Structure formats: structure tokens, C-alpha cells
Amino acid sequence: MDNLDTSAENTWCPGCGNFGILVAFKKAIESLIAHGFPKQEFVVVSGIGCNGKIADYLNLNSFLSLHGRPIASAQGIKIANKKLKVIAFIGDGGCYNEGISHLIHSAKRNTDITVLVHNNRRFALTVNQFTATSPKGFKGSSTPEGSIEEPLNPLKLAFSSNSTFIARGYSAKIEHLKNLIIKGIKHRGFSFIEILQPCISFFNTYQYYNERVYEMSDDFLDSKKMAQKKIEEWDCNETNGKIPIGVFYRVNKPIYEGSSNPKDKCIDFEAILKKHI
Amino acid sequence: MDNLDTSAENTWCPGCGNFGILVAFKKAIESLIAHGFPKQEFVVVSGIGCNGKIADYLNLNSFLSLHGRPIASAQGIKIANKKLKVIAFIGDGGCYNEGISHLIHSAKRNTDITVLVHNNRRFALTVNQFTATSPKGFKGSSTPEGSIEEPLNPLKLAFSSNSTFIARGYSAKIEHLKNLIIKGIKHRGFSFIEILQPCISFFNTYQYYNERVYEMSDDFLDSKKMAQKKIEEWDCNETNGKIPIGVFYRVNKPIYEGSSNPKDKCIDFEAILKKHI
Amino acid sequence: MKKDYSILIGGEAGQGSRKAGLIIAKVFNDLGYRIFIYDDYQSLVRGGHSFSQIRASEDNVFSHRKKIDFLLALDDKTIKKHRNNLTSKGIIIYNSDKVQLKEGIGIPIETICRELKGISLMANTALLAGFLKTIGIDWKVLEKILRREIDKEIVLNLKIARKVYQETNELIKIKRINRKPLPLLTGNEAVSLGAVRAGLNIYVSYPMTPATGILNYLAKHKRDFNINVFQLENEISVINAAIAGAYTGKRTMVGTSGGGFALMTEALSLAGQAEVPILIVESQRTGPASGVPTYSGQSDLWFALGAGHGDFLRFVFAPSDANESFYWAGELLNLSWKYQTPSILLIDKQISESTFQFNEKLLNKLKCKKALLWNKKGKYQRYKITKKGISPLGFPGEKNIISKVNSYEHNEDGITVEDENLVKKMQLKRLRKFQSMKNEIDKMEAVKIYGNKKSKSAIICWGSTVGPARETAEKLKIKLIQPIVIQPFPENQLKRNLKGVEKLISIEANSLGQLEKVLNCYGIKPDNRILRYDSRPFLPEELTESLKNIFSSK
Amino acid sequence: MKKDYSILIGGEAGQGSRKAGLIIAKVFNDLGYRIFIYDDYQSLVRGGHSFSQIRASEDNVFSHRKKIDFLLALDDKTIKKHRNNLTSKGIIIYNSDKVQLKEGIGIPIETICRELKGISLMANTALLAGFLKTIGIDWKVLEKILRREIDKEIVLNLKIARKVYQETNELIKIKRINRKPLPLLTGNEAVSLGAVRAGLNIYVSYPMTPATGILNYLAKHKRDFNINVFQLENEISVINAAIAGAYTGKRTMVGTSGGGFALMTEALSLAGQAEVPILIVESQRTGPASGVPTYSGQSDLWFALGAGHGDFLRFVFAPSDANESFYWAGELLNLSWKYQTPSILLIDKQISESTFQFNEKLLNKLKCKKALLWNKKGKYQRYKITKKGISPLGFPGEKNIISKVNSYEHNEDGITVEDENLVKKMQLKRLRKFQSMKNEIDKMEAVKIYGNKKSKSAIICWGSTVGPARETAEKLKIKLIQPIVIQPFPENQLKRNLKGVEKLISIEANSLGQLEKVLNCYGIKPDNRILRYDSRPFLPEELTESLKNIFSSK
Ligand SMILES: Cc1ncc(C[n+]2csc(CCOP(=O)(O)OP(=O)(O)O)c2C)c(N)n1
Ligand SMILES: Cc1ncc(C[n+]2csc(CCOP(=O)(O)OP(=O)(O)O)c2C)c(N)n1
Ligand code: SF4
Ligand code: SF4
Ligand SMILES: [Mg+2]
Ligand SMILES: [Mg+2]
Questions:
Q1: Measured from the CB, is residue D208 less than 6 Å from ligand 1?
Q2: Sequence-ordered alpha helix ranges (H) in D175-257
Q3: Which of C200, C242, C480, D478 has the most CB within a 10 Å radius?
Q4: How far apart are CA A161 and CA B100, in angstroms?
Q5: pLDDT in tens, C382-398
Q6: Which residues of A touch C222 (CB under 8 A)?
Q7: ipTM exceeding the 0.95 mark
Q8: For residue B200, which ligand has an atom nearest its CA?
Q9: What is the dihedral of CA B246, B249, B251, B256, to 10 degrees?
């Protein structure tokens, strides 16, 4: 029961960045369990896409939801039982295309969930089409002449949506990512962690990231100004700048949750009906 | 045929901010027609909500679409016929709640349409529930104890979505709004114009806006930094600061459009089928 | 003859005719009358024309009537639109400051309001006070109800009412009936109460007419009901959050109309595949698309029956009034949990926003029934293969439970499978569950009969159409057959009830005969049909007329 | 006996078995054979097990067979999974560097690739070369096809193929048939071509298996086809943009599978209300929800028939192969425009991604038919009331036209109405249009018959199931009845074709008998049913077996 593995056969391509995310996540959970978080109170949510398979690979409560809906589902779980630690895994396609409304509104509400975005900058499982974070000029099966759209900067979007915890990790920096995940889960509020995830089969970005990624210091996390600056350091396109990883912003605000209703409260129907007479 | 009025009876509440928008828009169109834009090439799109009725009140081509979908529809019209000038009217509920994905992605693509948001900061037609831009603490029929969510700053969101024209108007400043609309329509690319619109029946903000609204100068429109600063001047909540109106940002970028296909090109089916042998 | 009054009060939106109608109804309720209120309004906030039509009767009533005994007019339009329907002895009472009329009883409402420093929004109070005096209602009764119903400026309102009351003449004297008043509930309130009674924990919604009333009512009473209520950013978020909440062990419900329901259909299929209970209230309005948004219709039946991709059944129940809505909303919540299935309560504007009298005995007929829970033995498997196809529930957060649900086809542990044998195994499990659902339907009163049960002539109808049809059936002494359950289809019960019927006429508020087509699937072929699709509800008089024509023409 | 070969090539995803299968098929095509290819793959990008099954026959073929004559294995799994189906004389050809086997023909593929400095991705070339030599194919044919099909590293590929070819022994000699090769098209390609032929201007989509192939094909050929292709942010945006594009005067089409279709249903209703033509291609996969995403099924029929709130009809057509998909996609686009209505082309994975031979004569049977356009007289009214219910089209941008469409109920000008009489008037106009649509169906070949047309035993099936069933029907000399049009239902044609049928068996790839229920509505009751719902397609041998059992048991 304590093992985090399942019987499911892993079907990611050998070398896929998703493996790093899986390992980092398991380490984070193990560490949290070791620190007294009960295993049964974790719930992972995922959707459709290569990334979504992660739910099958984790011996934890899980809700493998629809494409684009993991954040909506995660939110439903948290408002139904606030004791649970809810982590939503989602791809860039699911998060920034199909389900972007949930990202923005869940961040705005400050629902107390953690969102881990496997950003491989394409729809991978449907065999390589562009997403909101694909670089400009991207040639996928639906854009043989190159996509003319510029990518979104997801961190900027999360910031504009009032997210109270904004971070970026890199699937190849497992220890760093593990710590981000722990911080995200511990943060009371909406934790947004964008993860750079190379896709071996369609967009092998290991070298690109390895050359550019650097770890930021954890200072001034509640400064909007600093956050804005750091968020804009990399424009998420194919440029030559450096790519900071770490926590960009963290602030405490009231969270969105249901009131805890007394379990066996007796509802006085007669009294209510009386008002209708 | 040249009159912009229709036979439809106007059913907005007397004093509603929507009247100001209607008047400003008609003036803008009249001015554009006078300057040689053919009337038949304007298409207005709207959705469901008090604001959406505007399509009925305009003797122009129109598509009265579904709640939240005017931007998606407008986009479809523009990519089908790039000669047309397409203007989408939409409420805050439609734009920032139901249909927020279309705002973000249409802005990101830089579709050449103009979006006019009637922001009365609530769902008005369904009788007063909170939207993404309702002030915190808002007591509507679904939140009798006050909404705990903080509002979004729509301009910030549009900016994060790479919108190439960002402006704010006020329905009571008709001449100013008219000019904004003309600028928006003339801008080649995605023009986002947020309009402060008092709702006489549920949120009479005339006095509040009258005291705070001021017209900005049109300088440095392509400066991201300046834009950001001006956008953050008012947090869209119930605060005491000033509220700038005018153009916040304008920049030229390639637009998203279909290629113009020769009308009578003969398609060589035989040649294509040959490749399948 | 038994007393049966029909009162119409109308004015512009914002003039408070609805509230006044409710107060009048409550006065009659207090006198022991049976009540029905129809509210008619346009999709606008001020102006236009809206009205309430109150039926107050010695007998039970389920519908308003065409003919009006008392026409109360806050404005001119009300008179123009409705005086045609006034009975020969009917009385018009009107705001003489706004309306020019030779007949009827004019009350100088604006003048009085101005004199007493009231606002014109109090015109409705003035008008109803004048009316109630005209029909001889005791001031004490009026005062009691006003005090209960008006929470703003009650003193001023009472002053105005009092003055009008004193200045108006009593024309007739409505008799009191020796019965105690009953709670008056709209269909939306009844649905809310029924769901709460059956253990609702969370209501999630996005406003949409005519279902918004459920959101408003539950939000207002969330503390009384010990529930949580959330308005989320769109219907897709709503349904996905609600399903996830149910996975977590909380009874959840969502409410919307056709357009919002459309956006929920992908997740409906998810609930079917993942076997998560969810109750969807779909209150129909005139379609297609935005249609005629504040008016009624019964044209979403096919959609509800087939919505969602893939093979799965859902319960679709169509109650016809507040009492049935209360009971079936609750039972449907129970059944959703018993069978871990999505369910649709299909109502419409006519039920949602009309006001009915509530049968308090139903309270004790409905309770929260526990679902099948894990017995805590062995390893927990969310999709354990069982004989009846139902796997015991266990929830995240509970010890020794790992609960995995999945939108993909899955094995007993909830892990994705693609192997053909495993796929088939799980499909078979669900097929067995669907069979159990069918068996369940056979055990309940899925079909109701009204009117003359022995008649060889029968009408068949569903949902809100039953109200006016019931009155007609009783009048014409024919049989009325009402399928309440529509999926799984109660074929046996229906056929049993059709025995001996020689002429069958279907009545529906849609243009394509949607229930009729469903009946056809089971070899039931109505000989005739009455369809109404101008967005307005059926009225008993009109139905009676149409039926008479049909019967006499053959 | 006529030649009829069944070849299976399998390996891990990424090893190129699909491409190799296509090349083999093209070789047989070149030899004059009739071809069908079934592609089977899992929802993953590398690893797992995928295979292609090629049928090459003297007769026309519409399905693969269970039995395999040649088993070509790039890996071990292929042998384990499929050797059971090898015929007694069947031959296994395999990669002997990866597979240990005592029998069959082993080719040291990795060794050869390494020697020639090829990459392991070229193993598929090696294997197919070995196979083609074994069956005595001329090197020249092989080289010709390879040159056509391989665009990367053709020289190296040829070198490898040549070497394997030389080192392998010829075992048999496949004879050439004197017929010219035909184009090989997947269903997705055929749909694309048909729509383009009927004047498609814009394709809008969001990727979803198994419809993604349409997006890919049209995007690749957008210049050849003189069309625009857009991938938008989600299905809701897709359908709304496509409908708006059609309002603007451009022929638009969208493609998706069940889950994406669900998200489009609100806008489907919009198209019904606003009377805007839109063609939706819904390619089904195993449901519900995410289901078994790369496998097939026929379980979205009910959904397609009833999707969208409110009363409106749509055309729902279900072709069964590439030829029908080509023709009906085009005709449906034409009909959508003729009747200003939404239409659904309901196909499935088995059609979308299988490869068929194309009948080039169809090209000239299909053309772009003009819709009813405004005659430029008087004032333009988008919803002009007409006898047949069809209002002439005029588009924004054209002189003297103000074209207003509306999701609300509207008057002839397209302006919102709530008045009951105006509502009814417009509903009646649409009802007349629906009647015209029904009449149109009666004029076309909405039902097809195969097999022994005089047999008293008949099977009824739709969509991809027709392929294997057709073969079975011919073998058993029974009648096959295929409704291609499902809404409006071709009742008359079907009943005409059922005359004389004494035993009727329905065959469907779903668990609830979805077509059967539809048949029931029209009083047609199959005596028996064969349902398959393990996500895999029907095979002619299995069908024959099942049918024999049914016939002999009575
Ligand atoms: C409603 C819906 N639309 C489309 C799909 C098809 N689909 C499955 S996965 C996927 C893309 C996933 O992209 P992303 O979320 O980035 O995940 P990745 O595969 O890259 O990890 C799509 C479009 C679907 N399953 N559901
Ligand atoms: C899919 C769908 N959901 C809900 C509704 C109900 N609805 C109609 S108007 C409206 C709110 C409109 O708010 P907003 O866009 O701000 O417009 P306003 O009335 O304030 O001008 C809602 C929720 C609908 N028509 N369609
Ligand atoms: S396709 Fe890309 S994202 Fe998907 S499993 Fe393979 S490497 Fe990973
Ligand atoms: S409710 Fe508000 S927004 Fe709607 S018409 Fe009235 S004042 Fe305007
Ligand atoms: Mg991705
Ligand atoms: Mg609003």
C-alpha cells in the first residue's frame, strides 16, 4: 500500500520528459508522507494526452478526467473535501487550449490546489500539432507551412489571473522540481507550476533547455514588480535568452473553499416550508 | 438603407449605459461610412445578455450568436471574408466567464476584429449574479453573503494574451468612445476595447465613474512598459484611485487570416488521386 | 358550483406584478383555497409586459385558465392584451392615473403614492389592496400577508394599502374555506427542497433561465440546508467540478437549461464511463439555441435521452409539478447514487417558475438513502466486477482506500485498458448495471394515471403538459397516462395501462412530437396528436376544445 | 479459386509497420489486386503493439479477414499475438535479430541495417522487401513503389531493400491481374476529397482521433485544394467560427470525434435556429468518454440524432467506406447549403483510418451544387417566409443586403421576437423546411441493398459494419440492407426493401443496439441481433459463424 507504483505498464517513449516529472512527483509525495501527510489524502487528477497517463502510474487516489478538464475536476474535489491535497497534472494543450478558462478562473478564485503543467509545447498524443505555447513557425501536421501564431507566456497569464503561487520547473532537474512540487502543495492557495518537458519524439528540447535553464534565488517572492520582471525574462518562444526556473511569485490570500458543514445537522424542513405559506 | 436604426423596439432600462455605447457606435460607423467604408462591409456580432440586443438595434449585417461566443463567431466571419469589418459586442459575463478562451486565443492570433466589451460587472439579463469583473464582496442572487473572489483586470489579461490594441472607454463619454471605436476598427489586428457600462438597475456606477474617469494622452502607445503601468492604475475593484480611459497599447503585428483563394481555380483531382496509387 | 377564481395582474417589468400576484395567492391560500400561479415575463429588466395569473379554487388546480375573472392592470398594455379573456361578469381594476377606462374600478394609484410619499414601485401594493377590498377580504388577512411578504418599507406599504383599502368598495365577498393553508412552492424551490431532503451536499451552477431560481434559492438558504453552493465560470467547469465532487463522496447537483446542458454533454459521458453519480436538472425553455428564453417548451427530450457519446444509460425523469419535482428530484439523487450513474431531471419553465401548492405529506416519503459502500475487506477496487454491475463505493481520504476513476476504459482498479477482452468485461459489467436500472424502474410508479381510468379514450402526455391535461381529462372523463420515467423506458407499466385504450392522443409542447417518437419505438402509436410550439403553455380550455374536435371528427 | 491474400505486418509503434503495410498494399495494387487495409494501433507514440492487416484480392474487398496468409513480424509480440490466426499454409517472415523462431523465414534485419549504415527505423523496409521477394514480386515493381512512397533517405532504403531482396528466396509467385491500379484512400482522405469536390472553402478543426487525419490531409493539400484550414483553441471555437464562416458565404466543415462533438452541440442547435449550413464530420471511437481512443465503435448514433436542444432536424448520413464517404460528404455539403441546415456525417475509426480502393467514376458524379440565392429584388430578408420553408441566401459584403442571423427566435428580418404568433410563424416555416428535407430523402438512394436481393433472410447494418457484413451476405446468399441516411429516416425506402423479408438480423458495433432502437420507432423489429462492443471491428469469418448459428438455431 505504501508503494507509489501501480501495475500499469508505462507507455511513454523512452527518454520522455514525463519520466522526470513522475520521479520528482513521487519523491515529493514520499517526502510529504514521511513528514506526516497521510497518503490517502492525496488525490491526483489528470486528463488526456501523454501527460495524463501519469494517473495510471501512481498508486494514489486519482481522477483521470477529460482532455482540458483536470483543473475543473481538481477544483470540484477540493471544494467537496478540503482535507484532501489535490494535484492536477495537465498538458499545455489541455491547460492553455481546451481548458484555459479553468486555469484562469481557478487561479482567480485561489482554489487550494496545485497545478503541474507538462509543457512540451505541442499536442503530443495526437501526433504533433501546435498548441498555445508552440514556438512561432512551428511545423506540425496541421500547419505544414508553419504556425503563424506567437506563443503565450503561461506565467504571465497565471499572473494576470491572480495566481498566488507561480513557479517554473524543468523535468530534467528532478531534485529542484521535487522541491517546487513540495512548496506548491504546501502553499495554501492556487499553485501554478509550469514544467518544461522535452518530448523526445516530436520536440527534443533537452539541449536547448540545458543550455539556458538556471535556478533563481527565492528572494522577494511577494513582489509583483520582481515577479513581472522575472516572468518576462524568457518569452517562451525560440529565443536565445536564459530561462529562469524556481518560484516567481508567492503571496497569501484567502482561499476559495466551501464552508465545512456539520455532518449530522438536522435540517428543519417544516420551518422552511412555513415561510412558503 | 442608410439609416442605422431598425424596427426593433429598444428594451434596455431607461438610463442604461448600453445606450451610450449604441450612440457612440452609430456615430463611429456613420463617420466611417462618410469616409468611404462601404456600409455593407460592416458586420456586427453579439451574444446573449442585455448588451447582446444591440444587434437588433443596428441596421447592419449581424450575427446574434450564443452567450459567450461572439468573439469565436467574429473570428469565423473574418477568416471567411477578410474584406469585412467585424465588430463583436460582448458582455463581461460572456467575455470573461463563458467565453474567455476565445478572447485570449483570438487576441493571441491577432485576428483582425474589434471587440467591444460592455462591462457592467455582472450578469445583468439573468438578474444580477457576479462575473469575473464584479467587485469583491458583491452581493448578487447567487452570493447573498458576498462573493469572495477578487475581480480580474481585463486589460491585463488582454495584454498577457498579446492583444495588439488595448483601450478602455466609458459609455457616458460618447465622443471619446466613438473615437476609440474608430481607432479600434481601423487598427489592423485584434482591437480590444473595454467599456465601463453602468447598469442602472443593478449597479449604478455613474457617479463612481464620473468622479474617477479621466482621459489619457495618446503617447508611447507601443511601449509595453508604459502600457503595463497604465493598465495597473486601476485594479478594477472598488478602490479610490483614478480610472484612465483611452488607448493603452497599440502595436503592429502580422494578422491572422486565411489566404485569399482564387475564385475559380480549377482543382486537379486526377493529379491528387494519382498520388494515391 | 365550486368556486374557482382566475386573476390576472400585469404591468411593466419592474412594476412588481409578480410579487403582487404572489401576495394575492397567499391571501387566497390563507382562506383555504387551492392555488396555481403562472408567471409570464419577457427577456428584459424594465418595461415590456409581464403578468401573473393566479388560479384560486376549491378543488386542486394544476394550471391557470384562459378566462379571467379579475383583471388587475398596472398599465395600459395589460388591459389591451388581456381584456378579451375577461369573463362576462369579470371585473377590471386598474391604475387610473395611467389607464383611461370607462368601466371597471379605477384607483388613482400614483396620486395616493405621491400623497403618502411612497414611490411608484409601491403601485403594486396599492392595486392589490384595492382588489382584495373589492372581493371582500378582511384587512387583517391582508395585513398579515403583507407583513410576511414585504421586507422593505413595510410601514409605508401598509399605509398605502390601508388607504386604498378604505377608499375602495367591497363588491363581493369571497368565502373562506375551512382548510389550512399549504406551502406555495415554485418547481425550482421544490426541486431544491427534494434534493436537499435526499442528502444534497453541493450545488454547482451557472445562471441560466429558467433554472436560475434553483441557484438563487439554494444560495439563499445554504446555511439552513447545510450545503455549499458554487457559481463557477461556465457550464463545463460546473459539471466537471460537480462530478469530481461526487467522486469525493459528496452528493452534487447541477442545474441549467438546454444550451448549458449541451455544454455538459461531454462530461455526461464521463459520468457514464467513470460511473460517478451526478444529478443534472435540465429546465427546458423554447428552443432551438437562445430561442425564446423566458418561455417554456418540451423540445429537449430527444437530446436528454441520447446526450453523450458512447453506450450508457442514464435515468431521465420528467415530473409535472412541484410535488413531483420535489419527490423525484430526491429519488433521482438517491438512484444516481445507488446506480452510480448520471441522471437528468427534465423539467421546463412552466414547472420551474410556476407556483404550486405543496403536499406536506411528501416530506416523510422522501429520505436520503445510503449508497452501496465498501465493506472494508480486502483490497479496494473502484470498479469491482459484481453480479449486478454495481461496485461498492469508497472515497479518497478514507483509510486503506485508493480510489481511481477513469474516463478511459479501465480495469477493476481503474487503470486504463485497451485490450479487447478487458474492454468487453467492463462493458458487460455496465450492461448488467443498466439491466438493474431497468428492473428498478419496474418496481416504482413510473407511470401515473389520472382522469377516468376506465375510459377507452386516453391522452398521453408528460411534464408540465400534464397540469392542464389533467383538468381536461377529468372534465371529459377520459384517461390520462403520464410516463414520469422516460429512460429506462417503463414499457411494461405503460403497456399495462394502455390495455383497453382504443383511442390514444398525445399532447406535447413541441413541434416534432418528441415523446410520440419514443412511444413509437415501443410499438405505441397515438392516433392523433396535439402539439403546441408557440412558446406558450397549454390551457385547459383550449385543450378541451381541441380534444372535443378530435373526438367528434371520428 | 480466386486469389485472396491476407497479410499482417506488426511491430512496436514507431517501427513503421503502417507505412510498410501501405507499401505492400500499393505493390498489390500495382499488380491489379483489390485492396483493403486495417490499421490497429494503441494510444501511445512509441512501443506497445501496432499492426496493419492488408487484404489483396481478385474480388472487391471491404474488410480484412481474421485468417492470415503472411505474418510479417518486426518484433516478438507480433508473433505471439497473431500466429494463432495463421492459416495452415501460412508463412511467417520475421526480424531474426529480434525474434527467436524455429520456423518461417528469418531475416537478420538489424545486422543488415547496421552493415549498410542504415538506422533501425529502416527495418520495415527490410522486412517488406524480404516478404515481397518471398512471394515473387519483381524488383522493379518494388523499387517503383518505394521511390514513390519514401521521401527520406531513399537511396539507403533502396540499398537495404535490395540486399534483403537478393538474400531472400522466392517461395511462390503472385500472379499479376490485368487491371489498372486504383487510388488507395483512407476514409478521412475520401471525406476530404468529397467535401472539396462539393466546394468546401474552409476546414476548421481541433485534433481528435480518429478525425485528425482529415485535418492533416486538408492542411497538407490546402493549396492544391484552394481552401483554408484553421486549427482553433477548442471545439467550441471551431464550430462557432465555422458556422459564422458559413453565414459569411463560405462552405465550411468541421471534424471531430464524440467528445469534441459533445462540445459542439450547443452551436449545432444555433445552426438549426439560425438556419446556417454546417457540415460536421463525427468519426466515432469506442466510448463513453475517452473510452478506447484509437479503436472503433458505433455508439454515437443516438447522440447524433438527438443532439442540440430544441426542435430541429439535421441530416445524419452514415457511409460505410471511402467511396461512400467521398460521395456523401460532398452531397451532404450540398444538401446542407440547399436546406441551410446542420448536417452530420457519421463515420468511425474503422472508416476514417482504414484504406480502401477508390472508384474514380465517382468524381464525375459529384459536383458543387449552388444554393438558393437572393434574386436581388426588393428588400433582402434573411428569413423570408416561403412555401418550402427555404429563404434565399444573401451574404454580408454584398450590395443592398443586410443579412441578420439570430440565435433567438426572430422575424423575417432576423430581429428577435417573443410574441407567440411570430414565434409560431417561424417554427412553421422551419417545419415546412423539415418536410422538404424528408421529401429530398425519398428522392435519393438512401438505402442500399447488397447480397442476394431476393433472400427472405436479411441482415441490416450501417456504417463500417457494412464492409464485413457485405462479404458475409454474399457468402451466405442473404440480403443486406444498409440505411445510409438515418435522419430524416428513409422509412418508405426501407420498408419497401423489407418486403418479403421473413427473418431480419441487425448487426452493430455497440452494446445497446442503437440502430435497432431507431428501426423500432418505425415498427421494424429485427428478430435477432449481433452486437460487438469490445472496441474491435467485425470480421467476415466471425460474422458468418454467428449468422450460421442464428439461422440454424431456428
Ligand atoms: C474534447 C477533446 N478534444 C480533443 C481530444 C483529442 N486529444 C487527446 S490528447 C490531445 C492533446 C493533448 O495535448 P497536451 O494536453 O499538450 O498533452 P500531451 O499529449 O502533449 O502530453 C488531444 C487534442 C480529446 N481527447 N478530447
Ligand atoms: C450557455 C448559456 N449559459 C447561460 C446562459 C444564460 N445567460 C444569458 S445572458 C447571461 C449573462 C450575461 O451577462 P453579460 O454577458 O455580462 O451580459 P449583460 O446582461 O450583463 O449585458 C447568462 C448567464 C445562456 N444564455 N447560455
Ligand atoms: S510523444 Fe513526446 S510527450 Fe508523448 S510520451 Fe513520447 S516523448 Fe513523451
Ligand atoms: S439591467 Fe442593467 S445592463 Fe440590463 S438593460 Fe437594465 S440597466 Fe442596462
Ligand atoms: Mg503537450
Ligand atoms: Mg454584464
A1: yes
A2: 187-197, 212-220, 222-225, 235-247
A3: C242
A4: 12
A5: 999 999 999 999 999 99
A6: 259
A7: yes
A8: 4
A9: -90
